[in-house]
Design goal:
Structural class: alpha+beta
Helix content: 25-40%
Mean pLDDT: 89
CATH architecture of the largest domain: 3-Layer(aba) Sandwich
Largest sheet: 10 strands, mixed
Number of strands: 25
Oligomer: single chain
Shape: rod-shaped
CATH topology of the largest domain: Rossmann fold
Radius of gyration: 48 Å
CATH superfamily of the largest domain: von Willebrand factor, type A domain
Distance between the termini: 120 Å
Length: about 500
């Protein structure tokens, strides 16, 4: 009984260890980092049959064994009557290269047609999909090999089309997807492939092999000299500075906008330092939902059509038609959605703004209301200060005209206040005691601008005790004890 239990225990232990190893291996495989995209697009029409074994042998050695690493994604696309991948997947381990070698050995060149358009589009679709799946650190390597011009079956979407017509396809016509493409033309009578290389911007990366006796050497040597895939420059494309008919939309802040706006403008910012970008809008829409959720307005957006080119580290402004199905009024949230193709990859852009829709007159009023209020307040302050200043105490200095005397100190005089002038010691306005009595008179401030002189020594004034209306700065004549005339004046003290 004990022996049986020991055997069962040993069996369970071995099973658990095996499961752990399998799990660990799967975990390691699944965590393989994503590397390069390597695609071989190979003509399998019957005309290339004689050279085909040599070509697949070179591809196996020069690409599979010498160029591929764990983490890379390899695609093998034979094309002729169609273009269906024979191998597609990420290399999880070195042993995966054996599977690729076996696939290459099993391939045959026996098709009747050379559907180049479908082959190019299939490869481009892989590039777009894989870049979207984070294979975007390196430029892809694409090796395209053919010995013939375009011939297509009736089932092909490019049936009857020449090179110019094929490149009218939006995907095929996007030059920014051909970085890392290399073309090989085998034979003397090739017309389409040089034109394809030129239209894709890769005319300098075309190898023509006319001497078939030299095919193996030339192809092997040329592939070995293809540089390693270069890292793709990291950057992004941003949409910002949104405006509705010149009224700026600000994130996180309620923006007042014109309810009858018919256009939306915004900037396309390219943050790449070296790479220009092509932007093409695929879809656009917007909605406005009121704050109380009582209404939702659908808005038709009509972005600029065609390809918009933006240079590295530059901004380009674009205008988008803005047509709501009813007038936007009141506060709510404006949501904007774009789908744009950026250098061959579709990306989504979503923005949301708190807005307050108003008519043009309401916006004009809002725009000038606070500046107008501030101006009115300033006017009131200035006028008030001007008025108040007149009733504030005024510093007045007495001056004896034509006689050098001690400098008089200024005296602050309030409304209704009387200030004496004479020869008495301590008199606010001091006169010569040899010439004048202790108190000659008083100067009184009646109101803001009105003054009067009140005599106290009637002998010093021509009119005796009669009060005299006085203007600051004017002369006031006084008789001295010696019956001479001395002129004085009261004037505002200089600040």
């Amino acid at each position: 009984m004990n022996k049986t239990i020991k055997k069962i225990f040993l069996f369970l232990t071995i099973t658990l260890l095996a499961l752990n190893l399998t799990f660990a291996q799967n975990t390691n495989n699944n965590s393989t980092s994503k590397g390069k995209i390597v695609i071989v697009v190979l003509d399998v029409s019957g005309s290339i049959k004689k050279q085909f074994p040599d070509i697949t042998k070179i591809i196996d050695r020069a690409i599979n064994k010498n160029r591929l690493n764990v983490g890379d994604y390899f695609v093998l696309i034979p094309f002729g009557d169609s273009a269906l991948p024979m191998y597609s997947g990420q290399l999880m381990r070195e042993e995966d290269k054996t599977s690729i070698s076996n696939t290459l050995k099993a391939m045959k060149a026996d098709n009747d047609f050379t559907d180049i358009g479908t082959a190019i589009k299939t490869a481009l679709n892989y590039i777009v999909d894989l870049k979207s799946d984070d294979y975007n650190l390196y430029e892809p390597l694409v090796l395209f090999i053919t010995d013939g011009d375009i011939t297509t079956p009736t089932s092909s979407e490019f049936h009857g089309q020449n090179v110019d017509q094929i490149f009218n396809d939006p995907l095929i016509g996007n030059k920014y997807l051909y970085d890392g493409w290399y073309y090989v033309g085998i034979g003397k009578n090739l017309h389409d492939l040089p034109l394809i290389a030129e239209k894709s911007g890769r005319e300098d990366y075309l190898l023509r092999i006319e001497d078939l006796d030299q095919l193996e050497f030339m192809l092997d040597d040329w592939i070995s000299k293809i540089p390693e895939s270069q890292p793709i420059e990291q950057g992004e494309v941003l949409f910002n500075n949104f405006k509705l008919k010149s009224y700026k939309l600000k994130s996180g802040k309620n923006s007042k906008v014109i309810s009858s706006a018919e256009d939306l403008t915004f900037d396309i910012l390219n943050t790449y330092k070296r790479t220009p970008v092509n932007v093409e809008f695929k879809a656009a829409k917007a909605t406005f939902q009121s704050d109380d959720r009582s209404s939702t307005i659908q808005i038709k957006l009509s972005p600029e059509t065609g390809i918009i080119q933006v240079s590295p580290m530059h901004t380009k402004t674009t205008t988008c038609g803005f047509n709501p199905n009813s007038e936007i009024k009141g506060k709510g949230i404006l949501k904007i959605h774009f789908v744009a193709n950026i250098n061959g990859l579709d990306k989504q852009f979503d923005e949301a703004f708190d807005i307050d829709g108003k008519t043009a007159s309401e916006l004009l009023f809002d725009k000038i209301f606070w500046p107008l209020i501030i101006i009115l307040i300033l006017i009131v302050i200035i006028v008030s200060w001007t008025i108040i200043k007149k009733f504030l105490p005024i510093k007045v200095r007495m001056e004896v005209v034509g006689i050098r005397t001690e400098k008089q100190r200024p005296v602050s005089i309030k409304l209704k206040k009387r200030v004496e002038f004479g020869s008495r010691p301590g008199c606010p306005f001091k006169l010569d005691q040899l010439l004048f009595s202790p108190v000659v008179g008083q100067i009184q401030r009646i109101n803001a601008n009105k003054w009067q002189i009140i005599p106290r020594d009637s002998s010093a004034f021509e009119d005796g005790n009669k009060k005299i209306e006085y203007t600051l700065g004017s002369d006031l004549k006084l008789k001295t004890k010696e019956d001479s005339i001395v002129t004085i004046k009261f004037k505002p003290a200089k600040k």
